[in-house]
Model the fold of this input.
Amino acid sequence: VTSAHIPRHTVELAGFQIGQHPVTNAEWACFMAAGGYEDERWWDTVDGRRWQRRELANEGAKANSRVWRKRFLADPALFEQVANEGRFQSKEAEERWQGWLQLDDAGFEAAIEGHWQATRETEPRFWGDARYNHPTQPVMGVCWYEARAYCGWLSAQTGLPVRLPTEAEWEATARGAEGRRYAYSDAFDRLKCNTAETHLRRSAPVGVLPGGDTREGVCDMTGNVFERTTSAFGRSDDDPEYGYPYRAGDGREVADISNAVRRVVRGGGWSEDQSNARAAYRDDNRPGRRDYDFGFRVVVAAASPIP
Done:
């Protein structure tokens, strides 16, 4: 996706307020305690309700497995690198991948079909994992539908119009008026953010790297977790349907579109290197994926992202 974030251009935005930090496990626990997974009011799209009722197949997870198989087969050294960096979710996952890489195409498809079964979820994917579940760590392992449900629930509790940020709002916050390369400055500093170069090998509690805050005081916009946005990317991560220049009215900000359309994520994560943590970098993810370095923050804005 090396060209998906260009050409450089100006986008006019209405005023908005953005969360100082990503949503934490402690905050997500309030959503769970309030019955958020069971209350259909917060699942406000057709596919969101299908996901909540376990009717939506786990196509995102299977697609991600296909991508990584392609990468591992193309570069045999990559598997060892990922293992050495602790990027497999568990020893079991590493061993499972060792077996999958011995299979032919048909065998691999059968294996991921059996492994990635759609289930009724009642908590984030890594809620029970001690590496990721401290109350002050950002909540991870929640998909786009879960993040939207949380925003709907929080809106009802606060009386405020809470939603995910558009990618333009996210980038405006991270880059500031001066157009910074990283949220804190133009020069990368592994001690001011949590990326693969920092070697924490897990998410950090929010706000513990204050040198990495934006000049306006927003934390963790470089690394730690990729952050979900409202904006659509396209059906393929190689050829975005919704490229640049950014135009909010071209359909990319419509919530109720096919679950095959990938959504933009920003900021990089703890398991990725500095290139993915640039403030202008666009990555993408299927809306149903629940990755171990994906989280989100919220926006309060009077206007809907759809013009």
In short: Residues 59-74 form the longest helix (16 residues). The mean pLDDT is 92. The radius of gyration is 19 Å.
